Model the fold of this input.
Amino acid sequence: MCVRVSLGSDDCCNDFGFFDLGFMMQKQEELILRHQAALIGNYGKLPVVFHRGQGSHLWDVNGKEYLDLFAGFGGTILGHCHPALVKAVTQQANTLWQVGNQFYTEPQIRLAEQLRSKAFAGQAFFCQSGAEAAEAAIKLARISAGPDRFKIISMHKSFHGRTMGALSATAGPAQQGFAPLVPGFTHVPFNDIAAVERAIDAQTAAVMVEPVQGEGGINMPNPGYLQALRALCDRTNVALIFDEVWVGLGRTGEYFGHQNFGVTPDIMTLGKALGGGLPVGAILARPERAAYFKPSTHGSTLGGNPICAAVAAAVLDELEKEQLPQRAKRLGAVAAVKLESFKNRAKIADIRGCGLFIGVELVAADALPVVQETLKHGLIINVTQKNVLRICPALTIEENDLLRGLESLDACLASI
Ligand SMILES: Cc1ncc(COP(=O)(O)O)c(C=O)c1O
Done:
């Protein structure tokens, strides 16, 4: 059976117009079965196979259209197939792929200079993921602190990645089953400055914190908390590491999360959005710390790869050209008003976040059915900490789409 499938408002962009629905249904199920047989089952999956994306719209292999309010865990900060990023990939892919870090390449230099100019006058190291950025930050904090200082203090409900060092900094269930973890990590409650003060001793090398916690439930720092951490670290000569893997690159309404609070770290980690959807991680470190990474202390074969670096540089160009941090701030305020309008009706316990980094905590203990229901209606959102819905769309999302998505969420909340 061949039918024309409506792809909604973006129908004119459809480049694969007709579907044999029977075949495609079969194809989706078949692909899922093949995936399950061939890949390790380490991810909780939703039953959709995506085929194509444009801006904040996605299409599955059946041609069903979805509105993307989660941007691939924050990776596609400019949406899918942004023309500037497609151009950057294409140009660089036709120019130079990879030479190894014993040589210099121009895209890395351009990207590092952009980070310095937008964040602080640090020096960059490039890798492929947020977890690797955490590893680099932990290693740099330890080597720059001297031989007797190795302890890292991080926060309850934190998330820094799945590699062993990053996992040791991460608090909570992600660690289960992987003992023994890396020694020297201590966890204290987020927003409790006295607890950090008690935990710091002569062996402490660093305090590591997300300026706004992401996986922990979009938890905002209390007023003065990050400033107090900065003062405490200065007083004790301990490195302050900000994990900006979620909150960097404009999402919170500033280029970097810490800029909302006027506090600059010694080391900042980046990932997710930096590559616009390609695997790019980075740290930016103050020069007096960065100097401790000498040849052979740390490295990554493909880190700063010319294609990834060129795309990341294009992400930063677009943030500036289209004033996307400001747009995130404005659209975040629009979303907050909309969510408030149905807060009581929809049994929402709390709405929090900044910019387009929004957490909606439900009164109900389990929000997974909501995510499943919205998906049926073509809306992609996410849940963390069991009952906190996360709304983190691309910063380029059309205001109408954002509002339409929130109306659809309202309807889904009412229906279950
Ligand atoms: C704050 C934070 N840091 C680090 C990571 C790890 O990033 P990746 O999954 O790219 O290794 C994540 C992933 O969600 C994160 O949220």
